[in-house]
Amino acid sequence: MEHRDTEELIKMLARQATFAPIGPQAFFINLVRQANLPQNFVMEVIGVWTGNPDFDARTLVQWAVNKGVNPQDPRFTVLGSILKPLLQNVGLDIASQIIALIIKYRLYRDADLLRELPVYYEISNSETLTKTFTEPVGPDFNWRGPSDEKELQAFWQKRQVTNLDVGNIQRGIQQVVSTCRIEIPNPNSQEDRAIGIGTGFLIKKNLLLTNYHVLAPNPDSDPNAYVKDIMLHFGYLTSPQGEQMQGQKFKLADNPILSWSPDDELDYALLKVEDSILMADNLQPVQVNNKRLPSKGMGINLLHHPAGQTMKIALTPNGITWIDEGEGLIQYLSDTSGGSSGCPCFSEDWQVVAIHHAQKSGSFGIYCEGILLSNIHEHIAIRFDS
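RESULT FIELD:
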C-alpha cells in the first residue's frame, strides 16, 4: 500500500479503537478473532496489544500486510479479512473509505466480491469506484510472470518498502524534472481545468517520449487529431505544504510526431516540443541505460501521474517478474492506473530502462507491462545522451 493510504488506515483504526465501548485493547483482539484467520495467525498477535490505539493500529496493519493471503479463506488477504467485519460496525463515511482501499489494493482477491462490495453497502459512486481500480489500462497482454500462488505471495511480501537509501531516493527525486503530465482541455468544464491523459518524459531537451495509445486510445483514432491541443505539464506536483504547485506548461511543435509504433508493437510516440522548452533551465532529460538491462527479481521504480493526479513515485523492490529482450517487453508488479501510461520505468539505480504501457488486475496487486527502451532506441535510430 502507498504510504499515504497506510497512514490514513492506521489513523482510522486508531480512532475506532479510541471510542470503542469495550476499550482499545479489546477492540483489536476482537478484530483479529472475527477475521476468520488460521488459529496460528491469531496466536501470533494475541499478546501484542498494548492499549495504545495509535501503536496497536500500526502494529495490526503492518502485520496484516506482511502476512499476505488468508490461508483460511484465499478469497481475502489477511488485511481484507480484518476489515470485513469492521465494515458492519462503522458509518457510511468510514465504510466508503475502507471499501475504496479494499478495491484499490485488491484486499478482497475475488473479483465478484470486489464488484458486489460497494453495491451491498449502497455506495453512490460504486460504478465509478469499481471501474477505476478493476478495468485494464492500455493494450491487452499475456501475463508471463509467476502464476503460482506461493511465488506470487513471496513477490507481494518482498514488495514492502523499508530502510531505503536516502541517496538513492535523492537520485530519484532529481529525475522528477524530466517527467510531465500530458493533458488536454476539458470540454465539459467552464473553468480552466485540463484532463490528464497520460505521462511523458524528456529523452532530449525538446524530445518527449510517451505511448502511442495515449495519442490514439482507440484502434480507429487519429494520433494527429488533437496533438495541437496537448499541453505538457512539468512540475505538476504537491508542495511540501500539501498544495498543488503551478509548474510549467509547454505545447508541442508543429507536426510533432517524429516517430511512432502502434500499440500492438512497441507502443511509443516520439514528440517534438515547442522551442521555448529549450530556455527552461530546470528541465532535464532522463538518464538512460541502454547497455545493462535489469533482470527478474530486481526492483523497478516509476514516476507517473496515476489517474491524472499530481506526480507519484511507485517503488517496487523485487518487482520485475519477466523480461524478454528479443520481444522488447518487461513485466512487473507496481501501483499504476489510467494516466500512468507513457511514464518512465527506472532501474534500481534510477536509469530509465522502459516505458510503462499496460496494466491489468491480478491476484496480487497490479500486473504491469512496459516496452524496453533499448528496442525503442533501435526503432527510432537516435542515440540517447548518457
